Structure formats: C-alpha cells, structure tokens
Amino acid sequence: VQLQASGGGLVQAGGSLRVSCAASGLTFRAYYMGWYRQAPGKERELVATISTDGRINYGDSVKGRFTIPRDNAKNTVTLQMNSLKPEDTAVYYCAADLSLGDMTRRPEGINYWGKGTLVTVSS
Fold this sequence. Notes:
This protein is mainly beta. Helix content is about 5%, strand content about 50%.
C-alpha cells in the first residue's frame, strides 16, 4: 500500500493551497481517508476525515476553511485549504483506515500513512 502526498509548499497568510493524496495497493472505496498534521513541537492533530460514503469530519481549527473531497474513481483524496493562517504551518499526512474509530479518535491505530508534505504559511 502506498499513499503518495503532493502539493505542499509556501503560501502567504490568507492564501490557498491544495494537497493531494494518491492511494495504491488497496481497495480505496472501502477505506476511510483523512489528513492529519504535525507542527514542530506540537502533537499530531486531526485535520479532516471522509468516510466511504462521503461523511466528513473537520478539526475545530479548520472548520469553514478546509474541504476534503475524495475521488473513488481516481483513488485520490484532496485537502483544499483556504484562508490559511501561520498556525496552519505543519507537515500534513494522508491516512487510510478501515475503521472510523481509528481514523477519528485513535490515530495510533491507523493502518496506513503517507510520508507527509510540508505546508508553510508566512505572515
């Protein structure tokens, strides 16, 4: 199984950025997908998750600014980030799991992780 993240980079505060995750080696439509992030010196934080039938859960800090569409035909999940803030700076990780509980409440149990892509928001 591979989760290949792409699209990170540097953006000014208030701007937008999209990161994408291409999955291979798994039955994508059967998996809950999500994005987590980790900033230097901070704990890993849930950003957003999307279930197999499209139900979405956002972390409180990104509600109203981020969206997480998935494309089961292309085996991809995207994180569209708008109105970015310096505190959004982090390494963003794509995740896949068969369990909603693991995906939303127990990340240490998540089946698969991508390598991460760095998002830097300058003030």
